[in-house]
Amino acid sequence: xxxxxxxxxxxxxxxxxxxxxxxxxxxKWDETDPEVTPIEFRDKMxxxxxxxxxxxxxxxxxxxxFAGLSIYHMLKRHVANKTCYVDGIAASISSVxxxxxxxxxxxxxxxxxxxxxxIASFLVGNADDFRRIADDLDKVEVPIVEAYAAKxxxxxxxxxxxxxxxAYMTGEEAVNLGFxxxxxxxxxxxxxxDGDNVIVNGQTFNLKSYKDFPVDKFKNLFVQxxxxxxxxxxxxxxxxxxxxxEHNLN
Length: 250
Fold this sequence. Notes:
14 strands; alpha/beta
């Protein structure tokens, strides 16, 4: 399996595994970038169109709303029985993608984030421009609310209330609210915080990409990873000679 985004066919094509371990974007400038686009997702979906079972594994900070909604609808249209496993964080639009599955399984030590759509850019404009932007954001919110409501059974008003609070849900909270169906009692998610970065199951996400990230809640929730010791510097020729000399003396 590749580190970030991969499809795996099993059982003569009847079972497929989908791994989304990166951000959701509409376009990649470099094919080696660790992101997922709707176009490559579509191409991979064509290879597994006859699968009867789909297993989706997510560890993603989210990303572009429209790219994520495209992936959500592609999954919804697939006739297979779909199960999503949250392998760390299903944040923002990646949590919406999870809603396309028939069943969502999340460990206690994992997180799901639902929030109102954001604009992350430097904007220049007058009051009328910003009012139009706010109106557009309200429209973008509609399909997100519908996706959450269809999965959870909650009302649209309740979903909007949850999103307005930037809801960082633990596994138990996600199950209690209907954003997930079952807890994985056995899996422990390892994570740590290093400066502005959060590392979850080996994937690095920038904390500046999140609004009001609950650092204390995060630290209490996850099994803290111990950083690996640095690799020792290689010995130079003089040090090698000195060690061999000392060894011979002994």
